[in-house]
Structures are given as C-alpha cells and as structure tokens.
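Hi everyone, sorry if this is the wrong subforum. Our group has a chain we'd like a structural model of before ordering constructs, and none of us has done structure prediction before. Sequence below.
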Amino acid sequence: MNIEVVITSYKEPKTVAELVKTIFKSIPKLKTLGVKLSNILVVAPDKPTLEAAKRVDSLGLVKTIQDKGQGKPAALDMILDQLKSDVVIFTDGDIKWTVDTPFNLLKVMLENGYDAVTGRPVPINSRNSLFGYWAWVTTQQGAHKTRLKLSQENKFINLSGYLFAIKREFIPDRIPHELLAEDVFISLVAYQKGAKLGYSPDALVYVMFPTNFKDWINQKKRAAGGDYQLAQLMQGVSTMRSFTKEASRFLDALLYARNLKELFWSFLLIFARLYMWILVFVDQKILHKRREQIWVRIESTKEL
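Answer:
Right subforum, don't worry. Here is the predicted structure as tokens:
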C-alpha cells in the first residue's frame, strides 16, 4: 500500500521541519505493515515554511506547494488532483507526532478494514491550568470517549483535522472554500459514499490548545461553527458535535474533575461552551458572517 502525507501549514517552519523528520523516522516501522511512503506534500502560503521542509528532506520525498493564503479548505482544494497514493494522511503543521503515530493509525485501518481512520489529539497543555484543563476535558473526556464509542458501534464519527488517514477514492472531488470545518466535510462526504470510519486511540498527535479566553473562544467558535454550518449546508446530516449533544453530556465534564478546583473549572467550561454556542448562532444565523470574518489565527496555539 502506498501512502502520502499532506501537511497544511501557515508560518510554522520549525514544527513542520520537526514533523517531516519524525515521519522519515517512522518509515522502517511502516514497512512492517507493507506500507510505502510515496511523498510528503507540504502546502503553505509562506516561503519560510516550505523552505524549512525542503531543508530537512534527506530522502527526496518532500514536495512543496505554495497556496494563495485563502485558508485551509482552499489550500486542500487546490491539491486534490495531485493526490495519487492509495491512502492519504492529512495533518497540520502546528502539531507533533511520535515515531509510532502513523504505524498505529494505519495498523488499525488495515486490521479493521476501515476506509478512513482518525488519530487521537492529546493536549500538550498542563492539566493544572484553567485552559489546559479545559483542553483535557474536551479532548479526552469528550472527543476521545465519543469517538471510541461511535467507532465500536460502526457509526459516523468526525475525522480530526489534526490527523486522519483516508483512502483516496473517498476524498471529495472538491472542497468548498467557505467551510469552517473541512475535516467534518470530508468525513461526511466519505460516509455518504459508504466509507467505514474508524478511530485509532493509540495514534497520538500532540496539540497546543489556546491559553487565553479570546483565543479559546475564536478557536471553538470556528470548530463548533463548522459543524453548525454543515448542518445548514447539507440538509439532513448529523455530525458528532452539536449544542444538544453537548448539553446531554454536561455531566461528563463534572465527572472528569479530580478535586474541587477542577470541579469549579468544569462548571466554568459548561458556561463558556454555552456562551460559545450562542456566538455561533448569532454569527451564522443572524449576522450571516462569512468564513473570513470568523476565522482568525490562534496565536497561543503556536507555542510548540
């Protein structure tokens, strides 16, 4: 099986270079699965990121493409016709893998006959801070447990844009540029094509989450707003995330707490998520804001 890795990035030369080196180190273990890495495609609007990826290309497998800086959906849309491998791994340039990450991702895919499989985002942030704790609650108590349950039940799951692998035939023919959550769109299109979606909890991808409230609101409003947007654009679809689904799981946030401080932080998180969903509704249903009015770069997540 041939694979290629697509890394989308913007002004992240250091982390992209480290990610490319980690992927190269994973090649021997991938070979034990019968997997061959064909190339790594780095897509970014800035030259420093592309040049950094080329500088560490010790195997001649890195191909760089400069996009027009119109957002990740537009960047992905422009390279779809260049994807040639059996399976494509999509990831971001501001995260970290371990050497075992792609092996664990593809092993689950091959052993279970999945057509697409997503990895497990894990916060780099400390659980001992407010926003770090919020990141741990939402990713481990929330997304991780939900994906695990839905995958075991062979139901629809959102593939995480931080890391997922998908067979090329299930990738959409085009990606609308106005999307807020292209990963959810790809998940929905693949599922509608009959793809079996899975989850690999051992395919770890380490992520820096927001460290202040402004960045937290902007990131979550974009992510949750992406699900809300697709529910409006693709009538009849149901994603993994919605206000009603979150409301039904509010006890999970409370049960994650290990002490009174974390319990207080969990209550704050519940009210913060409610506030965020109100903003999503206002932005999209009342103000009809476009993607470029909602999407902003989250600077505090670029501190890897």
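For your construct planning: The chain has twelve helices and eight strands. The radius of gyration is 19 Å.
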